[in-house]
Amino acid sequence: MQDQIKKLAQILLVILLAYVGVVVLVFIGLFNTTKPEKYVPIAVPEYQTDLEAAVYATQDPSLQLGYEVLVNTSKVIGPLVANAAKRTTGNNLECISCHLNEGTKAFGIPLNTVLERFPQFRGRENKIGTIEDRINGCLTRSMNGKPLDANAQEMKSLVAFLGWLNKETTRDVGNSLYAKATEKGIKPMEWPNRPADLSHGAEVFEQQCVLCHQKNGQGTKETEGQYLYPPLWGRDSYNNGAGMTRLLTAASFIKYNMPYGVSHQNPILTDEEAYDVAAYMNQQQRPEKAALLADFPDRTKKPLSTPYGPYADPYPVEQHQLGPYGPIADYYKKEFGIIKTK
Ligand code: HEC
Ligand code: HEC
Which pTM does this prediction carry? Predict the structure, then answer.
């Protein structure tokens, strides 16, 4: 009897200790998150041989102009160019504000292998598009400007430069910092199957983005009027017809490229943080593109998070802007047999 009581007491003690242990662990979990309180600077890797020096060494004026259009867009075909006839872009972003590392970063929307992918079918226009058409898509949306004629010197030079860039970066195959053809576009991520949480997005913005993009999202300029840190919204940002206004596109771009310095190999934001901060960013004011109704003549081709209607599904515009996307994706699968991942 004595023995049995002793045993029972021992068992009860073990249960009590296990219980206390779980409570302590939960407590540590709640209050000791590894999330940094404040932005911690990231060492930015040296990503390239000096492309500027290499392109100037060719002594080919067309390649040089193409490089300048990509890197100094605002000064060559943007609001900062003195000759008003040359002004094509409507904001002071550069192509490389989004096409990172001078268009060579893996999953940073690289452009070094892009010519291999064109001409290609485009859902937005529902036809086969050329590389010039695609560039004009970014000029009229991401850059909030006008299209360039396919025969304009700046367009021809830019396309010639992209061809040179491909040779330059594939010649250097040992350099793992240049995007391979398979590392094109933006790396897809697992999106949370819930509506984006805008107040959490604002917190993430405060902790991880304001240091560079500033509290009002307007970035900071360098002396010559170009941006050091580009604006994320407002009059000088991309318009509401741009790819970056799609929550799933922006979230993946941010997750694998921001804060500046991270790559797809070492992201620091969680899927939840990237999703919420992207939604917060895209709910702010930005220029409006005319004639968005003409986009996607075949509405079933519209990406899930296209922020403007009309849609081929019954879900409201808010759900296309903020999620959850699971039910919308299920609808396209059931009704049209289309698998949508973004
Ligand atoms: C605000 C950000 C932004 C800016 C600025 C921008 N783009 Fe883009 N660009 C994008 C996004 C987003 C995509 C689509 C990526 C995706 O969905 O995979 C894209 C796609 C492209 C593509 C097709 C890439 C591919 O792999 O198929 C080309 C070419 C391109 N942009 C050229 C340009 C040029 C040239 C400029 C400057 C005149 C420019 N872009 C400025 C965001 C931008
Ligand atoms: C250390 C500075 C820094 C931090 C922190 C940072 N960014 Fe950026 N961001 C940049 C720079 C620089 C560029 C432009 C790239 C270039 O010019 O090479 C950029 C470009 C962008 C772009 C595309 C261009 C545009 O203006 O739309 C987006 C979107 C963006 N950042 C979002 C974010 C978000 C969201 C955060 C926080 C999660 C963040 N960034 C944190 C420096 C930073």
Answer: 0.89
